[in-house]
Design goal:
about 550 residues; alpha/beta; seven-stranded mixed sheet; six-stranded antiparallel sheet; binds zinc ion
């Protein structure tokens, strides 16, 4: 087939791909053209032109076949077999049949021809045109009859999903996602191909694309690995894959969602077991805030509250705090919904509201287990809040979260839930409001308008009060290390409020939030925006990032 190889390379298929495909063919068999299509080296639409060059016969155009009719005598041929394999009788001339095909290399048909119709003529059709003409035969083929997948198709899909090109493509996409530190990979059908995007540090990036011929095999492989039904293409499905890639254990949650046009979108969420290191230094806290939090972690009773919207990294911070104080001398119990990560040496309990085991009930139970430190996933109701406060007053250190935008609002939110003010004044130790910003990669450069931005966002006082030797704003550039995004990892920006005697003494009426902010400022504390600007002035993130999450 050396002539065929020339046709491929003349068609622009890289020699490296052809070599790989030939190697694959030697080892596993199969057809070179199909292997190249499966590898994504060649769009399947290009095949008719390549065949045409190889066989020296034309590809029939719409003008050729528009008025074409099924030739007489074709019912004497095994029509179901031929149509199934991409062949149809085009015309019968005096000597022999002339066939039209979109798959001229089909081995079974060629074997049949050798025996029953020697010296046939050949014309070529694109797969789409072939399908159009096929319907003119009125032969019900297995594939056309059933809604959904036939067994033949399902077997074929299963085969494709196990073939090396599919396995290699999916593996390389997952490895690339992990290498770039992605939390999620999105595979979305997009004009025939599939677009692959990675979520890195909370933001989606275009990462790759899957050639049309490989989309279904890749999605099918994902379904097989995550124990989904591969024939089900109308309902959403969920599954899980456990993988070892490059020595790292990864759990992948897979979700498949059918789209209106018949395609399917798949999202993979990576839960990296080995990558979870809950170390205070990784949170990227400003030194004064880290010192205050370390003080809080050293006490034995009181409530430490985290606030922030979903995705603000509250759980990671709480786990970090718990890991910091975790030791053989203390008993830690957490109550979570759901338990996302296993923490060594910590008793984690999953609440199950559907059987009445909610946060309030769970909290009452775990207090009887003689813990020193408690973590309650979220305070959403008066009962949970009150039990948490009472536990703190009876000698427990309690961590929890509430959904508010800033620190002072968490105090009023608990009052609104109906918790007694005296209980809050006595039990609350501190409130930590948090957001995550992306951390600039080392390739960042000085922002050309640093001075102007510092003035515009009134950062002069922050810059002056900070201990930074040279406060200066930087902007993202991009290098291989950060996959050209300019960012690597995230860091927390924090509004920290110590609930001290002054806060306890304040009137909790309408003016409380403003008064608490004013007090925080007077003792040198910062708002989320100010803490973010401080991180921008120290070159750890950009002003745009800070404004994006705290503006
Ligand atoms: Zn970089």
């Amino acid at each position: 087939m050396s002539g065929m190889l020339d046709v491929f390379s003349e068609h622009g298929v890289p020699q490296g791909d052809i070599d790989k495909a030939r190697l694959y063919q030697t080892r596993h068999g199969g057809r070179l053209d199909q292997i190249l299509v499966n590898m994504g080296s060649l769009p399947s639409e290009d095949l008719p032109a390549i065949y045409s060059k190889w066989f020296g016969v034309p590809v029939l155009s719409a003008a050729d076949w528009r008025d074409w009719q099924v030739p007489e005598g074709s019912d004497a041929l095994p029509m179901e077999f031929l149509l199934e394999h991409g062949w149809l009788p085009w015309e019968q001339n005096e000597e022999a049949w002339v066939f039209a095909s979109c798959a001229p290399f089909d081995l079974e048909v060629n074997a049949w021809l050798a025996e029953h119709a020697p010296q046939p003529g050949l014309r070529l059709l694109t797969p789409d045109d072939f399908d159009t003409l096929k319907s003119r035969f009125g032969v019900a083929t297995a594939a056309a009859q059933v809604d959904g997948l036939t067994l033949v198709e399902e077997d074929r899909l299963r085969e494709l999903a196990l073939e090396a090109p599919t396995v290699n493509l999916l593996n390389s996409l997952i490895a690339k996602a992990l290498r770039r530190g992605a939390s999620d990979m999105h595979i979305e059908p997009h004009s025939g191909r599939a677009r692959v995007r990675f979520r890195i540090d909370g933001v989606l990036h275009d990462a790759d694309s899957i050639p049309a011929a490989m989309v279904l095999p890749v999605i099918t492989r994902l379904k097989i690995l995550s124990a989904m039904d591969i024939a089900e293409r109308r309902r959403p499905q969920d599954g899980k894959i456990e993988l070892r890639i490059g020595g790292e254990e990864v759990d992948i949650r897979v979700s498949a969602l059918p789209l209106r046009d018949g395609g399917e979108s798949a999202v993979l969420r990576f839960l990296r077991k080995d990558a979870l290191i809950y170390d205070m230094s990784l949170l990227g806290l400003a030194p004064d805030i880290e010192a205050s939090i370390l003080e809080d972690l050293a006490v034995t009773s009181g409530v430490i509250l985290m606030t922030g919207p979903t995705g603000s990294g509250k759980t990671t911070s709480l786990y970090t705090f718990l890991s910091h104080i975790n030791s053989p001398e203390v008993k830690i119990i957490t109550l979570e919904d759901p338990v996302e990560y296993q923490l060594a040496g910590i008793n984690q309990v999953q609440v199950q509201p559907e059987i009445g085991f909610d946060f309030a009930r769970g909290l009452r139970s775990i207090v009887r287990q003689d813990p020193d430190i408690l973590m309650v996933g979220e305070i959403r109701d008066q009962e949970t809040a009150s039990v948490a406060m009472q536990s703190a007053l009876t000698g427990h250190l309690v961590f929890s979260t509430v959904h508010t935008n800033d620190a002072p609002s968490a105090f009023t939110r608990l009052l609104d839930l109906g918790v007694e003010e005296y209980l809050l004044n006595a039990a609350l130790r501190s409130i930590v409001a948090q957001r995550l910003v992306r951390r600039l990669c080392e390739c960042s450069v000085v922002h050309p308008e640093s001075d102007r931005l510092i003035e515009r966002y009134k950062m002069q006082a922050l810059a002056k009060n900070s201990e930074l030797s040279k406060p200066e704003l930087r902007q993202s550039a991009g290098c291989d290390e950060c996959g050209q995004t300019g960012f690597r990892g995230r860091l927390a920006i924090i509004e920290y409020l110590r609930c001290d005697d002054a806060i306890a003494a304040m009137d909790k009426g309408e003016g409380f939030i403003a008064a608490a902010r004013e007090y925080r400022r007077s003792i040198g504390g910062r708002s989320l925006l100010e803490d973010g600007f401080l991180k921008a002035l120290s070159g750890e993130t950009t002003v745009e990032e800070v404004l994006r999450v705290a503006g």
